[in-house]
Amino acid sequence: PPIAGLPLEISGLSKRFGGVLALDGVDFSAPAGSCCAIVGPNGSGKTTLLNLASGYYTSDAGSVRIGGVETLGSSAQKIAARGIGRTFQTPRLVADLTALDNVMLGAFTRERANLLSTALRLPHAREEVRRLRKEALGFLDFVGVADRADTDAGETPHGQQRLIEIARAMMGGARLILLDEPAAGLSMAELERLEQLITRIRELGATIVIVEHHLDLVANIATHVTVLDRGTVLAAGKPATVFNDAGVMRAYMGE
Ligand code: ADP
């Protein structure tokens, strides 16, 4: 089914860790249905931005609006329930649950109350679980790892674990998906499949924000690119324009 992508609008976002100003008044926006990449050297604040947008950190100053609603200061659970899903650099799955069960857990962000009430009415629960299982298998198939459905998540390679996280986010009804370095450690063949997968998720209508070092991937899939350098926006615009900017390339060389 189509996904009604949510827009993300960040303005004046700052975050300090002790003496380190990880983000210094950052503006960033991802229109509904876009694929916006955040690139930049290590330590430039990319993951911090994702953590603030998804409610894992609170900020010192600024605004984060998702679907037009201010979410800065809301809990990660509340933000997830609004339709924001994410993946992590180091995947966060329940290692000793199967891939399928991990994806099914995604349903909790979407309909926690429903599931609980269902579990209390047993005859209904069996049907409900069967329905959720089928849906979860559909998402695993969509991301290309249906053959791993019954494997413990901890026993699949990291690249596949990130795909399972994408399936879990989709199961949770995510309309804005934040991907933190999904291409890290992937083979060329896996990279190509990731590129196709992100394209298909966008075709469904979801908004994607991707932090990624793999600039070829970014050039192929991103509608917008923002370059962070030491917590500030160094450049932003269309991939072709940004990647031709000499200052941007110097920031990378200086890494
Ligand atoms: P990037 O994702 O671009 O590599 P990060 O957002 O991870 O950069 O980090 C930006 C800066 O903030 C770095 O100097 C990093 O050391 C610091 N930082 C990030 N998270 C924390 C944290 N939880 N505690 C202390 N410092 C942090």
Q: In DSSP terms, counting alpha (H) and pi (I) runs of 4 or more, how many helices?
A: 10
Unreliable parts: none
Radius of gyration: 18 Å
Main beta-sheet annotation: 6 strands, mixed
Overall shape: it is globular
Topology at a glance:
Blueprint: E1 8-17, E2 20-30, E3 35-39, H1 46-53, E4 61-66, E5 69-70, H2 76-81, E6 84-86, H3 99-105, H4 107-120, H5 122-143, H6 158-171, E7 176-180, H7 188-204, E8 207-211, H8 215-221, E9 224-229, E10 232-237, H9 239-243, H10 246-253
Parallel strand pairs: 3-8, 3-9, 6-7, 7-8
Antiparallel strand pairs: 1-2, 1-4, 4-5, 9-10
Helix pairs in contact: 3-5, 3-6, 4-5, 5-6
Bound molecules: adenosine-5'-diphosphate (ADP).
Adenosine-5'-diphosphate (ADP) is lined by residues 17, 20, 22, 40, 42-48.
Summarize this structure briefly.
Involved in beta-(1-->2)glucan export. Transmembrane domains (TMD) form a pore in the inner membrane and the ATP-binding domain (NBD) is responsible for energy generation. With about 260 residues, the chain is α/β, with parallel strands linked by helices.
What attributes does this structure have?
Rossmann fold; 2 domains; globular; alpha/beta; single chain; four-stranded antiparallel beta sheet; 255 residues; binds adenosine-5'-diphosphate
